[in-house]
Amino acid sequence: MYNKSIFPMAAFCVLGAISSPLAAQTVDFSLTLEQSSNPGASYENMHAAGAGSQSSYAIGFQIEVTGIAGTPTTFDTPFASFCTELAEPVSTSSYTYDLDDVEGVASGRAGEIGTASSAIPAGGIGDLAAARVRALFDNHYQSTDLSEWTFSANSPSSQAFQLALWEVTHDVDLSLLNTSGSIYLGEQSSQSLTAGVALAQSWLDELVDVTTSYTSTTWDVWAIENVGDPGNQDILFATSIDSPESEAFSQYRASAVPEPSSTLLLALGGMLALVYRRR
């Protein structure tokens, strides 16, 4: 559960070829809070399957990538990032994470009864949720610079994005208000909180027609998962398509995948050798 001494984020975020399995690449990064003048908001009565009802602190934060697969990086700015799960902590210390597919993110404690992430399939959020995540980023991920996001009652873009992201990763009905859903929000006590829910729901309504064939148009979305500690938060952020940052992440991601043609040739070579020996 959420512990402010660790990171003041959320009550829940504490809220045709032969190939081998994809190997994750490590991403070393440090976490930094957004400016203190831009606080998040504590949304009340968040109901989550397997975890009851609590307040959920929705906020954006920044990560600074310092290395990929042991190679130091030279990125100029941090990346505005958001929680994938409802029940994991995030520490402000430097950690090593795996760079992973969006489809498989949040698999650490997914399906584990008694956690707010129990609604996520054990293998991760899956193809449809991943497509919806990419569409949400394309439509409403404002900037990699967190200072360009808004936190006001009239335009709570950071909080709304986090709420919408939680709904997409944990539920299929795309409704923060449906009391039959895997997660939903009860009545809020202030206009500011109500505005955040309304904005998030308007974005979720846009995702109804998104299918698994959706591909990113503006942002490449990256998932990172804590190495060796499934009790820590999995994180999503984005880089602009065709940017140097996207190219760097793509390069290291691709390096974890064996070339299908080479693997297939090796397999065929082995079969031919076996036939030759039998002759």
Automatic annotation (TrEMBL):
InterPro entries: Ice-binding_C. The keyword Signal applies. Residues 256-279 form the Ice-binding protein C-terminal domain. Residues 1-23 form the signal peptide. Keywords: Signal. The keyword rRNA-binding does not apply. This is PEP-CTERM sorting domain-containing protein. It comes from Oceaniferula flava.
